[in-house]
């Protein structure tokens, strides 16, 4: 399974999981919301089923029954004849007591801890931001694209450094440790001529301690000590390999123009080793959504049915008709 297919499967799984988790409020939730809203309008903001009974959310059932009896006597309409909403308060108290006695109490405690949604004209919604399913899906797609892009860029940079290290190691073995030194910077002896081609044996990922090439800015400003750079390269090439370190050695051919090739162990053919340019770095257009769109857009059209030769198709029919007529004549003469 390729990378694009894996990302597509993960996206579909996220959609299914989020779709299954996205449910509407049930009737018990709506009843709790309406009762809580009416309670806050009557008793003030911050009022809860427990606060009007003088209890904590962890109160036991016996404590709830005792507090309800005391509060029902206090809020009874007969004892509050001058209160216009005494009957509604008393009825609300009874509903609160019922909720706190059954399994709906756990649901109320959940909203009490996480916040109650507010009525917004068409339904209950949280006043603070709660992303919907579409926004969550968009976020997951963006996150997956970002992660995929970062992984691709990281792998590209690692491969870029490995290939560069391999090429520099091959050049050091073919042209000497001072292979990168400009001719005008060589002191004393005359610069050696570069062979047209030379075969060398190099570790697959190059020498471990091979220094990176000097930057273009340092070369342009004359800040590079080419003699020191050559010494670093020679130390990297001649450094002993640890006994615990296993290196795969490959055969490479280095040409005078700086190009090189490595031999393939399976086919025995020479494969060109080109440096990875920054222009080849992965872009967002290589991510799985764009690749998925390109795949659907470039899907081959249905192949047309092969043409049938009418002459060939009618010939067997004509022959069969002639055979039938001959058989009929023979039966008649018989």
UniProtKB/TrEMBL annotation:
Pfam families: DnaJ. Residues 48-112 form the J domain. Residues 299-334 are annotated as: Disordered. Keywords: Membrane, Signal, Transmembrane, Transmembrane helix. The keyword Repeat does not apply. Residues 313-326 have a biased composition (Low complexity). The keyword Transmembrane applies. GO terms for cellular component: endomembrane system. The chain crosses the membrane at residues 132-151. It is a single-pass membrane protein. SMART domains: DnaJ. It is found in: Endomembrane system. Residues 1-22 form the signal peptide. This is Similar to S.cerevisiae protein ERJ5 (Type I membrane protein with a J domain). It comes from Malassezia sympodialis (strain ATCC 42132) (Atopic eczema-associated yeast).
């Amino acid at each position: 399974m390729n990378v694009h297919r894996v990302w597509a499967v993960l996206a579909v799984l996220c959609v299914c999981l989020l779709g299954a988790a996205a449910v509407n409020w049930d009737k018990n939730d709506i009843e709790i919301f309406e009762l809580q809203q009416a309670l806050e309008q009557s008793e003030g903001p911050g009022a809860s089923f427990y606060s009007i009974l003088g209890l904590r959310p962890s109160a036991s059932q016996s404590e709830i029954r005792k507090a309800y009896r005391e509060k029902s006597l206090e809020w009874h309409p007969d004892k509050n004849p001058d209160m216009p909403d005494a009957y509604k308060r008393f009825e609300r108290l009874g509903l609160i007591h019922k909720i706190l006695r059954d399994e709906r109490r756990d649901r109320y405690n959940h909203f009490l801890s996480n916040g109650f949604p507010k009525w917004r004209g068409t339904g209950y919604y949280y006043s603070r931001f709660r992303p919907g399913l579409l926004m969550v899906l968009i976020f997951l797609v963006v996150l997956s694209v970002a992660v995929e892009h970062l992984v691709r860029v990281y792998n590209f940079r690692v491969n870029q450094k490995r290939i560069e290290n391999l090429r520099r190691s091959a050049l050091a073995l073919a042209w000497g440790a001072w292979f990168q030194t400009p001719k005008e910077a060589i002191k004393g002896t005359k610069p050696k001529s570069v062979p047209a081609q030379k075969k060398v044996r190099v570790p697959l990922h190059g020498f471990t301690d091979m220094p990176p090439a000097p930057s273009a800015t340092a070369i342009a400003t004359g800040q590079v000590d080419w003699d020191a750079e050559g010494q670093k390269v020679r130390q990297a090439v001649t450094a002993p390999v640890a006994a615990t370190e296993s290196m795969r050695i490959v055969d490479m051919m280095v040409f005078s123009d700086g190009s090189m090739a490595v031999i393939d162990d399976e086919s025995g053919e020479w494969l060109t080793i080109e440096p990875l340019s920054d222009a080849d770095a992965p872009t967002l257009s290589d991510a799985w959504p764009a690749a998925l769109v390109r795949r659907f857009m470039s899907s081959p059209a249905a192949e047309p049915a092969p043409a049938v030769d009418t002459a060939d198709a009618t010939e067997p029919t004509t022959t069969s008709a002639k055979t039938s007529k001959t058989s009929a004549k023979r039966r008649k003469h018989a």
